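Q: Sequence in, structure out?
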Amino acid sequence: MAKPLVVVIPHRLGRVEARRRIDARIGQGRDLVQKAGLTMQDPVWDGDVLAFVVGAMGQRVGGTIAVEDEAARVEVQLPLLLGMFSGKVRQVIAEKGGELLAA
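A: Exactly. Output:
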């Protein structure tokens, strides 16, 4: 099993505001995923951790977003087959995640 891909997105919003923004804009994330030709199951909150599953190339990719006071920690379990795309995935998560938490 491959190591998880971890991206830490710093913010200055505090935990409550960061979670509110992620929750309010989750639809934008779903739209982005669908425009890329992927599928996304309904994300589920457990405390300050959002779990999600995305379908890509016949594979299921699961992950979490842990909302912390000064950062959002995104962890994605890429199957070995998709590991070759980890650099691009990391770049997109960092860029779009930063936009998601922006004012």
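DSSP finds three helices and six strands in the chain.
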